[in-house]
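Run folding on both entries below.
>entry_1
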Amino acid sequence: QVQLVESGGGLVQAGGSLRLSCAASGRTFSTYMGWFRQAPGKERELVASIIWDGRVTYYVDSVKGRFAIYRDNPKNTVYLQMNNLKPEDTAVYYCAAGNVATMTSVDYWGQGTQVTVSS
């Protein structure tokens, strides 16, 4: 069993930055870690994913050049650095862990953290 706990969400003005953290505990080894988001009235989408050795495997087009995913394996923590935030980035962000590269199958989810970007 793996527990994922996100932190770092909040309210920020457009153009600002936030860093989300996802701390994993329990049986922590998962090949892929990812960040999803879900805005009101929209489906949950994969934002970014990373493999266990630190190689980034995916960014959704809308965040390329603005967001960066990275992981600190000794700390069992995955981060999502979000820069130049836009109002359309407003969503609940979820950390996820699994063993499928496309993250179409997720084994564990965090509880979510709200990110609100004001214009």
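>entry_2
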Amino acid sequence: QVQLVESGGGLVQAGGSLRLSCAASGTFSTMGWFRQAPGKEREFVSSITWGGGRTWYADSVKGRFTISRDNAKNTVYLQMNSLKPEDTAVYYCAIKEGLGSFHSWGQGTQVTVSS
């Protein structure tokens, strides 16, 4: 089973930036980033296909977040700019193959944006 390790979270002021990383121990077809704020359900943030680099974004982060991949390092990045307090959440990465469901969730990394 592929292991995922997230890193890069932290505390930042509104308007600031953070870059999250998700390193995978194996291969996959698509990696996604999700987040869960206290008292809320986990929500989709962004995803990228490993082969073609096709990307998807939630409307709430379009234009502010950028997902990218480094094939040599088996790592996906989430560059988060113009952060808002409502971006505060635990961010998780997960993977899937084809049209299947996301699985192999990482341990999560906390992102806190102060106003």
